[in-house]
Write a structure and sequence with these properties.
Helix content of chain A: over 70%
Distance between the termini of chain A: 42 Å
Radius of gyration of chain B: 21 Å
Strand content of chain B: under 5%
Largest sheet of chain A: none
Structural class of chain A: mainly alpha
Shape of chain A: globular
Radius of gyration of chain A: 19 Å
Oligomer: heterodimer
Order of helices and strands of chain A: HHHHHH
Shape of chain B: flat
Number of helices of chain A: 6
Distance between the termini of chain B: 55 Å
């Protein structure tokens, strides 16, 4: 089946919207079952292992070897991700309200990526797409505070 | 690894049951698929749009929670969902127009 890049992009956006959103829903299910809060640690261990296996096993079976460059970027991303989570937890523990911490965290990451896209990758977007980014930025911030 | 160490060092360990493991596997695979789709999309699409859609996806579990668990739908959430839909419409239409402009430019060149 010959799928154009435009159609594939649309499909990928829909996949991202559904799978990334629903990936966090398990924690809500656990909460609905009334399980103790500590269940999240073994739950997340299995969650990360399943995700790792989903990507790692096909790579292993195809005999793909990670280039040093790719492994380095992966490790850096993981460290930055953990750093972000720890910083967010520390901010909340220090007494900063969630309605400040979450919008800054989520909004900040979108802004940084938008700036990187514009200046590092020289991405060109239609004005309507930029309007979508601006409206989406506000929507994400409202979602994080509501 | 961090989660495994944290789980093993808990003072009051909670046993991992089969239903909990099953939903962890299902939603863990969801996360992996999302990241793979994101990586694939930025090969030919804008990283800004891909990352924004990753963040807008937070609205999906919020909507499902409202439907499944009868959670309260506040005015702020309604506005947020409305803006998210408007944003997706602009992003998809913007992408369509960009593709149209590229095709027109290629035709003009040839």
């Amino acid at each position: 089946v010959n799928i154009s890049n435009k159609t594939l992009w649309l499909l990928l956006m829909l996949v991202i919207l559904l799978t990334n959103g629903m990936s966090a829903f398990g924690l809500r299910v656990l909460s609905g079952w009334g399980l103790p809060p500590n269940i999240k640690f073994p739950y997340l261990t299995v969650w990360f292992t399943a995700g790792f296996a989903c990507i790692g096993i096909p790579l292993l079976l195809r005999g793909v070897k990670a280039a040093r460059n790719a492994a380095g970027w992966g490790a850096l991303t993981a460290i930055l991700s953990i750093g972000g989570q720890v910083a967010m937890a520390n901010a909340l523990n220090s007494g900063l309200p969630g309605n400040i911490v979450f919008p800054v965290t989520v909004g900040g990451s979108i802004l940084v990526v938008a700036i990187a896209g514009k200046f590092f990758f020289a991405e060109k977007m239609h004005p309507l797409s930029w309007a979508g980014v601006a409206i989406g930025f506000v929507a994400v911030i409202l979602l994080s505070v509501s | 690894m961090i989660m495994l160490v944290r789980s093993l060092t808990l003072s009051n360990r909670v046993p991992l049951t089969w239903p909990v493991s099953a939903i962890a596997v299902v939603f863990g695979i969801c996360a992996a698929v999302a990241y793979l789709a994101f990586q694939r999309s930025i090969e030919f699409g804008n990283i800004t749009v891909g990352w924004l859609v990753m963040n807008l996806s937070a609205g999906v579990p919020a909507l499902v929670s409202i439907w499944l668990y009868s959670e309260k739908l506040s005015a702020l959430k309604i506005v947020a969902f409305g803006l998210a839909l408007l944003s997706l419409f602009c992003l998809f239409q913007g992408n369509r127009l960009e593709a149209g402009e590229k095709t027109a430019a290629q035709k003009a060149d040839s």
